Amino acid sequence: MAWDVLVADFGMNQYHGGFFDLEDRLEAIQDIGYQGLERLTAATEGEALEAAATFHRMGMTFATVRAPSTTLSIRWTAAFGRAYVWSAVSGQDHDTFCRQVNDQAEACDRHGILVAVHNHMGTPVETHDETVGFLEKCPKAGLIFDTAHLAAVGGDPVDIATRYCDRIVMVHFKDWVHEREHEVWTQRGRFTYLGGGNIDLNNIAVVQALQEGGYDGPVAVEQDTHLQDPIDDLRLSMAYLRAAGV
Q1: What is residue 1's predicted lDDT score, i.e. its pLDDT?
Q2: How far apart are CA 167 and CA 157, in angstroms?
Q3: Do 148 and 190 form a contact (C-beta atoms < 8 A)?
Q4: Between β-strands 175-178 and 189-192, what pairing exists: parallel, antiparallel or unpaired?
Q5: Of all helices (H) and strands (E), which one includes residue 72?
Q6: N- to C-terminal Cα distance for the chain?
Q7: DSSP element (H, E) containing 97
Q8: Computed over its alpha carbons, how large is the radius of gyration of the chain?
Q9: How far apart are CA 150 and CA 147, in angstroms?
Q10: Nearest CA to 19 among 31, 4, 7?
Q11: What distances in angstroms separate CA 35 from CA 5, 31, 118, 221, one per listed residue?
């Protein structure tokens, strides 16, 4: 199955100290086989249109839009014909978070798109049970499924990919190096290129489960911490996905 393989480029921005030039970023990842970025980020409508034109001119794509406000993110994402927008709610406990996501889901539904939640360490949707609980309590929401955030807290990414394939709107493929025990997740270790972790995360099995489930959305490589040029890491991750049949 052919998926658009994008880059979720938070880690690139961290490595370089910021985001400076869209065309340069797209050229760099295009040269190693990626089809675009997960998010088009813009401050104004004009900037969003200019960025979208750059993606189109270069034969690249994006999956969603990040605007200055949640309302604009929803509207611009819908206007560009994309399928989902990231959740942007304030709830810090699981029940409040899910209630607010359901409210955002209703707003998104009026524009014909989905709100999607990224399972993430240190958030109300962190563990395996919390991820399942979110999916059950928020039936109109999608999942931005992060394999390493789940595996790093003992979750089973293959189970989520198998049981909830129809709820996934984006997959973040990454790996994790566990370095120490610590109550703060950012102090426990770091993310790395695919195949470079030490927690026995089998992203190949996740790929297979998604393929068997008929997943046809985009996927993204994300590496929050780069210890070398991000392009070198992204090249290793692309090779991993190609070997997995992506």
Answers
A1: 60
A2: 14
A3: no
A4: antiparallel
A5: helix 70-79
A6: 7
A7: helix 94-109
A8: 17
A9: 5
A10: 7
A11: 6, 10, 21, 11
Give me the domain span that covers residue 143.
5-243
Q: Could you tell me the CATH number of the domain that includes residue 207?
A: 3.20.20.150
Query: What Cα–Cα distance (Å) separates residue 242 from each residue in 194, 204, 238?
Result: 11, 10, 6
Question: H or E element: which one contains 93?
Answer: none
Q: Along the 246 residues of the chain, how does pLDDT read in single tens digits?
A: 689 999 999 999 999 999 999 999 999 999 999 999 999 999 999 999 999 999 999 999 999 999 999 999 999 999 999 999 999 999 999 999 999 999 999 999 999 999 999 999 999 999 999 999 999 999 999 999 999 999 999 999 999 999 999 999 999 999 999 999 999 999 999 999 999 999 999 999 999 999 999 999 999 999 999 999 999 999 999 999 999 999
**Residue 11 and residue 139: Cα distance in Å, rounded?**
31
Name the residue with tokens 């034109």.
53
**What's the rounded Cα separation, in Å, for the pair 58 and 160?**
34
What is the token pair recorded at 128?
Answer: 């395996």
Indicate the number of domains in the chain: 1
- Collapsing DSSP to helix, strand or coil, 85 comes out as strand
Q: Which residues have C-beta within 8 Å of that of residue 203, sequence separation ≥ 6?
A: 147, 157, 173, 175, 194, 195, 240, 244
Pairing of strands 36-41, 84-86: unpaired
CA distances from 143 to 15, 62, 104, 154 (A): 27, 17, 14, 18
95, amino acid identity? D
Cross-strand pairs, 209: none
- What are the backbone dihedrals phi and psi of residue 78, each rounded to the nearest 5 degrees, phi first? -65, -40
